[in-house]
Design brief:
By secondary structure, this protein is of the alpha/beta class. The protein contains 14 helices and 16 strands. It is globular and about 60 Å long. Bound molecules: ligand PLZ. The site of ligand PLZ has 17 residues, from helix 5.
Amino acid sequence: MVSTVPGAGELQPPDSLPQQRRLVTEIPGPRSRMLGARRSATVARAIPATIPAFIDRAGGGVVVDVDGNSLIDMGSGIAVTNVGNASPAVVAAVTEQVGRFTHTAFGVAPYEGYVAVCEALAAITPGNHEKRSLLLNSGAEAVENAVKIARVHTGRPAVVVVEHAFHGRTNLAMAMTAKATPYKRGFGPFAPEIYRVPTSYPFRDGLSGSAAAARATALIDSLVGAELTAAIVIEPIQGEGGFIVPAPGFLAGLADYAAQHGIVFIADEIQTGFARTGDWFAIEHESVTPDLVITAKGIAGGLPLSAVTGRAEIVDSVPPGGLGGTYSGNPLACAAALAVIEQIEKEDLRQRAIELGGIMSERLHALAGQFSEIGEVRGRGAMMAIELSHEGAPDAAFTSRVAAQCHARGVLVLTAGTDGNVLRFLPPLVMPDHLLQEAMDVLGESLAAAR
Ligand code: PLZ
């Protein structure tokens, strides 16, 4: 049996991890293959598996597997470890908290950390209005709670979402998610009163933001009725759907329509939040102030935490006892979140996201000149992607081959897109330049090898 848990005496700050790509075995190596066999014998096959290597430690811009291979991390655990994996500040905060108490249930016996996270969220989310927050465990759970709040506040049933949306895997969040396979097929019946309208996808629709917004709101009028609509829920840059950056003005158009009709405008910032795009939240780029902001992922550096933050009069329309959960706002996760927020400020990681984005944008555009398969380079800050096609049609098979080539060469990349033809890049914001440059070199080699 492979032991991957070091004794306490062996713990080293992840800063000491050499920031290098280094392959000492093929991937997966022998220890990962043994763990893979144990996994197959016991773990549900429905759980996704991007790479076959099992991780032993991670930090800065690398993940190191149980065979000693050091891979460049271009995924950040799906936009979670923005401040770096096992960031020393997060480790210290969680270690301090875990020795004091691990759980009381905030709804039973409250503690300061929860309140401090809500104060921080009020300070960093868009808008100077009076705000309230509640903390939950997962992104999907926060999405569900935002919808509950919007329905109570408006007394209306309908929830409007867009094409290519991803909002989670629980029943309501799944209904709000667009892609059938693998997220929805066979899992119905789905929660009712979810309506899907077209998004703004400039690469595919060529529409201006205002034209795309007019198309969407006309459909809300004709298919749903504004007076029956509780909420419009949208990712400011669509994540799993393919890093789709809407045309400027689209989000503002939807937000204006929502404001006119008393609809709660909800930004799902789960993948885009916490400095990922160069601002605290991606919607700031469009100067739109959502009524509610949903956060998760990057909020707590890998500890499970999510939140709904928004206008006090909307959130507080739900009476006491209406929202909650046993583990929601767990004290360890709160300690981590406070450390994350402080680190983003202290290390100016918003600026760092812009720098990393600059490097990726330059390198990806150069690759687009070499590889006709790259139809578009898009994204913002340290959230960049390429969409791959063959003769104008999405090429998922090529995309998977490129990802597999990257993995074999020691660069962990993620795919995305309703059509599976997007490669996305989400480096930890603490990744050194040289690793990002090397990851881009490897991407070039992988594109050539996958042809
Ligand atoms: N909203 C915008 O990106 C999670 C999902 C991966 P949970 N995205 C990664 C997978 O295979 O399930 C996500 C998101 C946006 C909601 C969610 C859901 O967040 O924490 O996974 O529930």
